[in-house]
Design a protein that fits this description.
- By secondary structure, the chain is α/β, with parallel strands linked by helices.
- The chain has nine helices and twelve strands.
- It has a single domain (about 1-295), classed as Ribonuclease Z/Hydroxyacylglutathione hydrolase-like (Metallo-beta-lactamase, Chain A, 4-Layer Sandwich).
- Helix content is about 30%, strand content about 20%.
- Helix 6 (about 210-220) runs antiparallel to helix 7 (about 240-260).
- Bound molecules: zinc ion (ZN).
Length: about 300
């Protein structure tokens, strides 16, 4: 698995490589601190940071959903942050963590599944399969997902209801998006990590080619959303998700057109006008376009 990952890194480029490396980074020795923000009465977010600089990278946004039955955490950040994560949960509730949902397999979203005692771990069936390949879970199989689903799964009811949806491959082959219907909140995980090219992790079944359709499925499939929790950015709205779908449609079309015309990835990047997408960066556009080129070759 390590060797497969190393090969993937060679194929990926520039900042994208740093991102992948950050998922695997050993825990930093710097003092650890996390911020927690209140989204709704019973929903908090322990916020993320950018993967760079690496010293302060804790992993993705974590949702803390306080239900009658206990706390449901969505994602668990990078290994080594479990104690700080637990302290942040305790700062807003006395209830124990009873359920963990992993939006996908990466170590910056699954790194502290073992920090809360006995819990029920829930994920998409493809994410469970991806997690079973991770060295981090060797000998810790009890913290792999014990409950999985294929298309949709509902946990709890009424104000405590959580709906898990699978809309297709994108960042990985097992990206879960979560709706808290009573709170009108959507948790996107790394399918929408930031306003830039996504990491399409082909080693874990991700697909840049499928990305626009999968995002369109999300937009068509969820309703009544006021707030969106992205993977690694401050809170957003459905308008931002729609903008991301348009950005990815444009990015994939530009890469496909360039590849079809025998052009290079660099030429594809140069022809893609990021100014058409206000607020967007192009630090990771090249990496995403490279994946489109690679997917078209197979
Ligand atoms: Zn990820």
């Amino acid at each position: 698995m390590k060797r497969v990952f190393a090969l993937g890194i060679v194929v990926l480029s520039g900042l994208l490589t740093m991102t992948v490396a950050a998922f695997q980074a050993p825990a930093s020795t710097a003092p650890k601190s996390l911020d927690i923000v209140k989204l709704r009465d019973h929903l908090y977010v322990i916020t993320s940071s950018s993967p760079t600089p690496r010293e302060s990278f804790s992993g993705g946004n974590v949702a803390v959903f306080i239900t009658d039955a206990g706390v449901t955490l969505v994602d668990t950040k990078l290994a080594g942050w479990g104690q700080v994560l637990l302290e942040k949960v305790k700062s807003v509730t006395n209830k124990p963590v009873t359920t963990i949902i992993n939006t996908h397999t990466h170590g910056d979203h699954t790194g502290n599944n073992d920090a809360f005692g006995k819990v029920e771990v829930v994920a998409h069936e493809n994410t469970k399969a991806n997690m079973m390949k991770m060295d981090a879970f060797k000998g810790k199989e009890q913290f792999l997902p014990g409950k999985t689903y294929k298309d949709k799964l509902t946990l709890g009811k009424g104000k405590d209801q959580i709906d898990l949806y699978y809309f297709g491959a994108a960042h990985t082959s097992g990206d879960t998006v979560i709706v808290y219907p009573a709170l009108r909140v959507l948790h996107m995980g790394d399918m929408f990590a930031w306003k830039d090219g996504p990491l399409c992790d082909r080693n874990n079944g991700g697909s840049c080619l499928a990305y626009p359709k999968t995002l369109a499925n999300v937009i068509a499939g969820v309703k009544n959303i006021d707030t969106v929790i992205p993977g690694h950015s401050p809170m957003m709205t459905m308008t931002d998700v729609q903008g991301y779908q348009q950005f990815m449609t444009g990015l994939v079309a530009a890469a496909q057109a360039a590849a079809g015309a025998g052009k290079t990835v660099d030429e594809a990047v140069a022809a893609f006008d990021i100014a058409n997408y206000p607020g967007y960066k192009n630090e990771r556009v090249k990496g995403a376009m490279q994946v489109v080129f690679d997917e078209m070759k197979k």
